[in-house]
Design brief:
heterodimer, A: 92 residues, mainly alpha, 4 helices, 0% strand, globular, B: 410 residues, alpha/beta, 11-stranded mixed beta sheet, two-stranded antiparallel ribbon, 15 strands, 35% helix, 19% strand
Chain lengths: 92, 410
């Protein structure tokens, strides 16, 4: 990320690992599980037992955590945790 | 049309301020123990009413797991626990039943009021996009009925009666009718309420319907007493398994009682005040007795609606005297439990079934100075041994809804 003078501003860029950690904690809080279980390969429905309402609930928690607005998404478009994490990273 | 299918009770379960589980609750009632205490579910410091009948020590995460508990309003949690006890008690084996012949009618006067209040706060404070996606399913009053059906796999008739403080008496009535009509062989019926939240207490307090005897919580619910000053709001759930007699006998179930009559009427008079001469209540009791084919003289115990509000107790006394005369013992267990609102009718049906089986009438506690207009035998202060063949319970709700259930010893 650059400031108005073209200078790289390191402190404003969110580290991917830090973002993932915060993502995992927010989602784990919604799903009442441990953050370590929210790995990128997990499938929402099959592995995390998250139906469409649970996915919406996670979206709200992520909006809150990152100060973003995730657009309306179809559950089919976010089959895995990685799919959702990519959407979040794209908004940061 | 001949209604020759008989309906019996084969299981019961309760969650209440005097105990969770039928054994614990019944012991408390017989001992005359009050379940009323300071209202601690939220900070009630600024409220005119600071007492309630709470279900203390209830740990939903331990019962349902944290994630599932989070998506069930407290009223549905209570309903599921009461239904689980009742079904287990009945030994109804769903694996052996035709699931489409087993149904649920589970009432609530209000539904998920705590959820409603929480999400309205979110709406106002943060905006519409932050409202929880589980808000609607958690809040709707019929969700206990839906959850119980899911929990036990009951695929037959399923609904929810919402008639305020008569709601779960109507649920039992509807379950009874469903079996009599031949639409089901077993019905899991009852009601649940969890309205001890700020807006609920503030609302009832605004009506001046609640006792403000904040310094003496256990003496606050005093039905038929001259010093009564309103009801004490309470929470909980109660469930009865109703079953067609032949179906129960064929599977070797223990028959606890027969539900022989259901009366239902409306005062069509006022939003909240009873008809001054008890017209609706009288018609309701008479209807139930007529259906049961039972003479007024055969009724050996009445569990009163007995809320501890000045108008209810006076008019109910008038009405009972008009129908049953002045010799029948009638107690109000709300003196101990407070008013379970939409769960009250089913809880008090449980009391009637226990009376028939245990031969003990639970008392009306706190009846220190009877209102001169309340001159029946209310079984004051202490329980009494009595051999009862037929027991009746009355439930009256805002909206003028009346329901009476009559049970007979098997």
């Amino acid at each position: 990320m650059f400031d108005g003078h073209g200078q790289l501003v390191e402190s404003a860029a969110m580290d991917r690992d830090e973002a993932l950690s915060r993502f995992q904690t927010a989602v784990a809080d919604v799903l009442e599980t441990e953050p370590g279980t929210i790995t990128l390969d997990k499938r929402w429905a099959e592995d995390l037992d998250a139906d469409s309402l649970a996915i919406v609930e996670c979206t709200l928690a992520l909006n809150d955590e990152f100060g973003i607005t995730i657009p309306d998404i179809e559950p089919d478009d976010v089959g895995t945790v990685a799919d959702a994490f990519d959407i979040v990273m794209g908004l940061l | 049309m001949a209604f020759d299918r008989r309906v019996v009770v084969t299981g019961m379960g309760v969650v209440s301020p005097v105990g969770t589980g039928t054994r614990q609750a019944w012991e408390a009632l017989v001992e005359g123990r009050s379940g009323i205490g300071p209202l601690t579910l939220f900070d009630a410091t600024d409220y005119a009413v600071r007492i309630a009948g709470q279900v203390d020590g209830f740990d939903p995460a331990a019962v349902f797991g944290r994630r599932r508990a989070k998506h069930l309003d407290r009223f549905a949690q209570f309903g599921l626990v009461a239904a689980a006890e009742a079904v287990e008690h009945s030994h109804l084996d769903m694996a052996a039943e035709d699931a489409h012949r087993v149904g649920v009618v589970f009432a609530s006067g209000i539904g998920g009021m705590g959820t409603f209040e929480r999400e309205v706060r979110v709406l106002v404070e943060r905006g519409p996009e932050w409202v929880n996606p589980y808000f609607c399913p958690m809040m709707i009053p019929n969700m206990a009925a839906g959850e119980i059906a899911m929990a036990i796999g009951a695929k037959g008739h399923n609904s929810c009666t919402v008639t305020a403080c008569a709601a779960s008496a109507h649920a039992l009535g509807e379950g009874y009718d469903t079996i009599r009509l031949g639409r089901a062989d077993a019905m899991v019926c009852g009601g649940a309420e969890a309205g001890l939240v700020p807006i609920g207490i503030a609302g009832f307090a605004a009506m001046k319907a609640l006792s403000t005897r904040n310094d003496e919580p256990q003496r606050a619910s005093r039905p038929f007493d001259a010093g009564r000053d309103g009801f004490v709001a309470a929470e909980g759930a109660a469930c009865l398994v109703l079953e067609e007699l032949g179906h129960a006998l064929a599977r070797g179930a223990t028959v606890l009682a027969e539900l022989v009559g259901f009366g239902s009427s409306c005062d069509a008079h006022h939003q909240t005040a009873p008809h001054p001469e008890g017209e609706g209540a009288i018609a309701c009791m008479r209807g139930a007795l007529h259906e049961a084919g039972i003479a007024a003289s055969e009724v050996g115990y009445v569990n009163a609606h007995g809320t501890s509000t000045p108008p209810n107790d006076r008019v109910e006394t008038l009405a009972v005297k008009a129908v049953l005369g002045d010799g029948v013992p009638m107690s109000s267990t709300k003196s101990m439990t407070g008013h379970l609102l939409g769960a009250a009718g089913a809880f008090e049906a449980f009391v009637c079934v226990q009376v028939l089986n245990q031969g003990v009438l639970p008392p009306t506690i706190n009846l220190d100075d009877p209102d001169p207009e309340c001159d029946l035998d209310y079984v004051p202060h202490v329980a009494r041994q009595a051999d009862v063949e037929v027991a009746m319970t009355n439930s009256f709700g805002f909206g003028g809804h009346n329901a009476t259930l009559v049970f007979r010893r098997p």
